[in-house]
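User: Can you model how 5-O-phosphono-beta-D-ribofuranosylamine sits in this protein?
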Amino acid sequence: MLNLGILISGRGSNMESILKAIKKKRIPINPAIVISNKPDADGLKIAQRLGVKTLVIESRGFKGSRWQYDRKIVEALTENGVTPLNGLVCLAGFMRIISPKFVRKYKNRILNIHPALLPAFPGLKSQKQALDYGSKYSGCTVHFVDDGVDTGPIIIQSVVKIKEDDTEETLSKRILKEEHKAYPEAVNLFARKRIKVSGLRAIIS
Ligand code: GRF
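Assistant: Here's the modeled complex, given as structure tokens:
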């Protein structure tokens, strides 16, 4: 079976939604390992409670290059069966840009979730960016990771209407609710081999 590795840095609510959906919806993928770059990430405890192996590879104070750090992640993924042939990697609030070498190794096998309708509002604080811009709609995007920041073929998007009285907090909350549906759905599509990438497009069958 396909093996899943999830990379987190904090709260881990998207990770939790994926892990729970795997069990409940019988997504044909084995949750092999959750890796955090921060030792105090709350998501680690959630993963452990759900019976998934966790590992911390601390990035703070790491002296090497971006790839040298990522190589440690790749080694850990590989040791746990999340290989470029038989693995899927989900970035779930992983607050690091991954190196092109990592991306190339796992070509079209790394997913990310972003709290905006890409290509609008990439980068940090996307919900605030959408509000400040006066957008009427925002949402979330699950996409394959390529060499850019928050770029790569889009698998799923979910739209959220922005209300006149929304704050960054209220909008983030409503978007997060959609994230928790969209990310497990994208993992399901991948696991069932229903996504084909053609250039910039991810075609769902
Ligand atoms: C989510 O909003 C996700 O879209 C973004 O970072 C946040 C992570 O939240 N990439 P969580 O750790 O999954 O709760």
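A couple of observations from the model: The longest strand covers residues 29-36. Helices lie at 13-24, 42-49, 66-79, 100-105, 126-133, 168-191.
User: Helpful, thanks.
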